């Protein structure tokens, strides 16, 4: 993907209005951080903070401030070279949607903006990877809406934060007791609502987090398999190798050679 321009926490006056004609292969992501009005099929729709819209290259983009300053994150980009990936996602275009995890998207936009203005040697690859993460997150949210997964559950945000913590810290000894205690739930209810929201058991998700981290370390570092095992929270290297092969299909050593 190629980013044309980007803005994080952009602030505009109350008279701010956009009417942008579509351009072939150019997409625009808007995350409103204040109330805003979006025109949908010719009709104005007032939306609260936390609303996002992903415009494709067929729709006129019309939106403006709702009686006050307009604050937003935005990315204008082309999908050059990533058409197959892009088309594989379940993305909702040209429709304003209140996003339950807007802080996650905003943090990604900030990271993308920082990388966009950097001079790093891997800038292009980093930008592409970050954009893919963001689009997958948006696609995942769209799929949950279609499947009526309870994003309005009062515990939803706490569970999302816990899941992110689990994936960021695979070295920790996560189990049902520690995870349910983290969000102040009973064991049984926690296991039930976790599976209902994420479609997987909490322990399976813990293992997935460990394996994903292991794949990253095997690809990006020169750490030994033993070191990777320890860094991912395994006390037994043999257990790590068996679990890795069962899930990935090859041993850690073979995975590294193929990467």
pLDDT averaged residue by residue: 87
What's the number of helices? 10
- C-alpha geometry: globular
Structural class: alpha+beta
Unreliable stretches covering 5 or more consecutive residues: 147-152
Instruction: Indicate the CATH architecture of the largest domain.
Output: Sandwich
Q: CATH superfamily assignment of the largest domain? A: Regulatory protein AraC
User: How many angstroms does the end-to-end distance come to?
Assistant: 21 Å
According to CATH, the fold-level topology of the largest domain is Jelly Rolls
What topology emerges from the helices and strands here?
Elements lengths: L1 E11 L4 E4 L5 E7 L3 E5 L2 E5 L3 E5 L5 E5 L4 E9 L4 H6 L8 E2 L3 H15 L6 H24 L9 H13 L7 H7 L4 H12 L3 H19 L4 H7 L5 H12 L3 H7 L1
Antiparallel strand pairs: 1-8, 2-7, 3-6, 3-8, 4-5, 4-7, 6-9
